[in-house]
Automatic annotation (TrEMBL):
Disordered: region residues: 629-654, 928-952
Organism superkingdom: Bacteria
Name of the protein this chain belongs to: Uncharacterized protein
Taxonomic source organism: Streptomyces silvensis
Length: 952
């Protein structure tokens, strides 16, 4: 595409082939190389007569302007042709090919837009008339036009010089200036009157200069110009009309036209339009004016149109804003300020170097924006571009529970925006408590503890929990790493593994404590992870999004409907299961697009993100209010729950296990077939009932007469469309009168478990005395089943090994779902206590019995340091005592250069000051036992860990 401009200036008439004056029709056409017309000009001297040997200006009119702008086509240019014809006739106003007396001839000029030598001044003619005489010649200027581009142009109309008003005395004059342009260069089409002038109603006279200061509406005007724009002026006189015009005049003083283009500096500056030619062929008038480009608005009118306070995701649509999400206390918070530059987008619209200030709660905290930004028109602001907003980071320690007032203001080059104040609701949240379990398989070793924490420590990026202390880790003594031979590519094997995990957690967890078993990515599995909602156990690969997904299930979230999962939340919004909102990570600045799959969906992998819908669900689940928040902020993590008092004496012959409840679990297919797993008496109370979409399932315990002794709802969930069988479980009060355990769907019985008439009977064979127990080695447990008096067929027994103490404060289950009658327990991994016992627990499907070793004392185990991020500048660590559980708060000490420098689960290396520092972390349990982990050498300025020095 090559844009061209032809300015037609004059026609000199040599011979009109008439004895006197006549009328003339002149026709100029622009043709492309294929002969197609791309522009046209016509002229007949405003229906006036012409004479031989006269030069006339080709002033044109509004319909046929004398400046033609056209595209000749071709890449990058093309060949075109200018063609002119003219005719005369005494009576026709527009003599043409079909109506004329004389043909004045025609002429052509061929040009190539790619050859500058063929552009510039154009001469069409002289032509030859039909009588063989020289007819006329047309002059013009042919130029290329630069690409269109928007700017504001200021026009100043200064003076008009009247040469001849065609009156013998004073007369009234009306002068009119108009502008014409097509829509171009982001500017709208122009067709408007710029100025009209009549010397304030006074008369004018020949050969005089008149200022245009009294012109209406103003002699100064600004046009939004996107390309070539025609400025056109004409004037009339009349003795009796105060505003002579084309509709009421005695004399026409002529017209003139120029072209201005913001992309061509040569077309701007000072201009003289004229001298014009009157209808009597005299010089009429000359108008002086100037045109200048206005710079893009250098004084932007910054306006804050909205403020978004976000910790992961937010409902917000600038510029009108929207409801702000409630947020979590103790969490780094990004405040994004949406600005309108106040500059017309057609002039670039942007202004660089915009900064700002955020003030929290009337001045308790003030911070400058993270980086200068380039402000732009609000319509051009892309929420998925962090650089499009003015951003402020409020550190986690400044985000306290309660309502906060946030005021922001932007500035650039001394110009301030409007201030804007909003309120934000920050809620105290309880930590997510996680039992750390690392899993090995026959082919893949377990991941390390550091890798576990690397994955799990990323949870606050997505969750409404505190950045520091938002997760409290528990470890199961002796079971921080477990080995499984279950087939994790099979539905049954996966559910069996969840059974194993739930058995490990049975005497530890409660509704607020979640067990997640993490496997290496290379472990043979056909799923990313799996959670059992009601039992608070899950397993999965060492993936951040998988971990967050399965923990979300354990906290009560259903699936988002994206990617085809079943068991979806019917109320989820947006209905396509995407997040629907732009997510952002305050500390990293990573943006997550609005079309990312929700964290609880099957869309995407690690790029799944927390939606606003699930953010609020979790925030409501984890929030603590009022005094609870204050207490939780100061208190140590909760104690492990008591598991009932166990007698200290040796129990060699089985007796009923004293748990008040019975755990019921099994499998059910989509068609309703039921497989029962062994029920087990337990101290653990039932969890609050949960419901899910679909049919209502219940588990009940009945006596021999069919009377329901206890019942509870159970959630039956099929997560995947290909899944044919799933687990169900419930906890009910234990009753010795039980005869059947029944699963029903919408009241219809699906299957029943017949309860054996009595508890299991077995005896402990070894150890039978304290000297048989090597408290510094392995305890060899052996037992024997007694079948005396049991009716045929005899039920199968399932055994568990439970380690506990007489105080009942901890009870790991190192042996679960055993079918044999022996187990070797490594006491070196067990928590110490002055009165320890090992129990063997047996269930015959419903009733539960146990035997127990004589009490023995074990030395207390030192605490373990659970390291999080240690590369700097922010370090994270927690402790875990085998005897007492998590170690946090003041019991975690950061040691810098051999001296205690700070306490707490996190430490900023930059607080140490310049220089190189050696840092370690020490955890101390309530008995005074401690463990110190050296972390290495750090740069106190950057906070980064330094490479290990290698001795030469």
């Amino acid at each position: 595409m090559t844009l061209m401009r032809l300015t037609l200036n004059t026609v000199y008439l040599f011979e009109d082939e008439e004895s006197g004056s006549t009328r003339m029709g002149l026709y100029v056409r622009v043709l492309d190389n294929a002969g197609n017309q791309v522009a046209e000009f016509r002229w007949n001297r405003r229906n006036g007569e012409v004479e031989d040997n006269f030069q006339y200006p080709l002033d044109g009119n509004q319909e046929y302007p004398s400046v033609l702008v056209f595209d000749i086509g071709g890449e990058p240019g093309g060949i075109g042709r200018l063609h002119v014809k003219a005719y005369t006739d005494n009576d026709e106003r527009w003599p043409d090919e079909g109506h004329h007396e004389n043909f004045l001839g025609e002429a052509d000029v061929v040009f190539d837009t790619r050859e500058p030598s063929q552009l510039g001044q154009v001469l069409l003619g002289p032509t030859t008339t039909d009588n063989g005489n020289s007819g006329y010649v047309v002059t013009g200027l042919l130029e290329t036009v630069p690409p269109r581009g928007f700017r504001h142009v200021r026009l100043v109309f200064k003076d008009v010089v009247v040469f001849d008003d065609e009156n013998s005395d004073f007369t009234h004059m009306g002068l009119y200036v108009r502008a014409f342009a097509p829509a171009q260069g982001d500017a709208e089409a122009i067709d408007q009157e710029l100025l009209r002038w009549n010397n304030s109603g006074d008369r004018v006279f020949d050969e005089a200069l008149f200022p245009l200061a009294g012109g209406l509406p103003s002699p100064v005007t600004t046009l939004a110009v996107g390309g070539p724009t025609r400025i056109w002026v004409e004037a009339y006189t009349h003795d009796d009309e105060s505003w002579p015009s084309g509709g009421a005049y005695e004399n026409f003083l002529g017209r003139a036209m120029i072209t201005i283009d913001p992309n061509e500096p040569d077309t701007l500056g000072r201009h003289a339009l004229g001298p014009t030619q009157t209808d009597q062929t005299h010089n009429g008038f000359l108008l002086t004016m100037s045109s200048e480009l206005l710079p893009p608005d250098a004084a932007p009118n910054l306006e804050i149109t909205g403020v978004e306070v976000t910790q992961a995701t937010q409902h917000f649509t600038p510029p009108a804003g929207g409801p702000q999400h409630a947020l979590a206390a103790g969490k780094a918070t990004l405040v994004r300020v949406y600005l309108d530059s106040g500059i017309d987008p057609r002039e670039g619209g942007t202004v660089a170097g915009v900064v700002g200030t955020l003030t929290l709660n009337g001045g308790s905290f003030t911070v400058r924006s993270l980086n200068p930004i380039t402000a732009r028109p609000i319509a051009q602001v892309d929420r998925e571009q962090l650089a499009h907003t003015l951003n402020f980071l409020v550190p986690a320690d400044r985000v306290t529970a309660g309502t906060a007032k946030i005021q922001v203001q932007a500035e650039v080059a001394g110009t301030l925006s409007n201030p804007m104040e909003i309120t934000a609701d920050f809620r105290a949240t309880r930590p997510v408590t996680i039992w750390m379990v690392r899993v090995s398989t026959p082919t893949v070793p377990a991941i390390g503890a550091a890798r576990y924490r690397t994955v799990s420590d990323a949870l606050p990026r997505r969750y409404p929990i505190a950045d520091t202390g938002g997760i409290v880790y528990y470890t199961v003594p002796g079971l921080t790493e477990i080995h499984t031979t279950r087939n994790l590519t099979d539905e049954g094997g996966q559910e069996d593994f969840l059974d194993d995990l739930e058995d490990i957690q049975e005497d530890h967890g409660n509704d607020d404590q979640l067990l997640y078993a993490m496997l290496d990515q290379a472990a043979p599995m056909n799923i990313g992870g799996l959670a059992r909602y009601v039992d608070h156990v899950a397993f999965g690969r060492d993936s951040e999004s998988t971990f967050a997904h399965e923990v979300g299930h354990l906290l009560g979230l259903l699936h988002a409907p994206c990617g085809g999962p079943e068991h979806t939340d019917e109320d989820f919004t947006p209905p396509d299961g995407r997040t629907g909102e732009v997510g952002v990570e305050p500390l990293t600045g990573i943006i997550h697009p609005a079309d990312a799959g929700d964290l609880m969906s099957y869309c995407g992998g690690d790029d799944r993100w927390m939606s606003g819908y699930h953010w609020l669900r979790l925030l409501n689940t984890l929030s603590v209010r009022g005094e609870q928040a204050d207490e939780r902020a100061d208190a140590a993590p909760p104690e492990r729950p008591a598991h009932g008092t166990v007698p200290a004496a040796l129990t060699t012959t089985s007796r009923p296990f004293p748990g008040q409840y019975v755990r019921v679990r099994g499998r059910v297919t989509r068609t309703g077939a039921v497989r029962w797993q062994p029920c087990l008496r337990t101290f653990r109370k039932p969890s609050p009932p949960r419901t899910g979409p679909g049919p209502v399932h219940t588990v009940s315990v009945e006596d021999a007469s069919g009377q329901v002794l206890a019942d509870a709802p159970t959630v039956v969930v099929f997560d995947r469309r290909e899944q044919q069988e799933t687990a169900f479980s419930a906890r009910l009060p234990y009753t010795a009168r039980a005869h059947r355990v029944v699963l029903r769907r919408d009241g219809t019985e699906l299957g029943a478990l017949l309860v054996p008439p009595g508890p299991p009977q077995f005896v402990l064979n070894t150890p039978l005395s304290a000297p048989e127990i090597d408290t510094e080695g392995v305890l060899h447990l052996r037992w024997q089943r007694l079948d005396v008096g049991e009716p045929e067929p005899r039920p199968a027994y399932t055994y568990f090994v439970r380690f506990t103490n007489a105080d009942g404060t901890f009870a790991p289950r190192p042996g679960v779902n055993l079918s044999g009658t022996s187990f070797d327990l490594d006491l070196r991994t067990m928590p110490g206590h002055e009165r320890c016992v090992a129990q063997v627990i047996a269930t015959n499907g419903y009733h539960t019995s146990y035997v127990q070793t004589p009490p023995f004392a074990l030395p207390a185990q030192p605490p373990e340091v659970l390291l999080g991020a240690v590369d700097g500048p922010l370090l994270n660590a927690q402790g875990s005592s085998p005897q007492h559980g998590p170690i946090t708060g003041a019991d975690v000490t950061w040691v810098v250069d051999g001296r205690a420098a700070s306490t707490g689960t996190s430490f900023d290396v930059r607080s140490t000051g310049s220089g190189t520092h050696t840092i370690a972390v020490r955890v101390t349990d309530r008995d005074g036992l401690d463990t110190t982990a050296p972390l290495g050498r750090y740069d106190g300025t950057s906070g980064e860990r330094l490479p290990v020095q290698v001795e030469q």
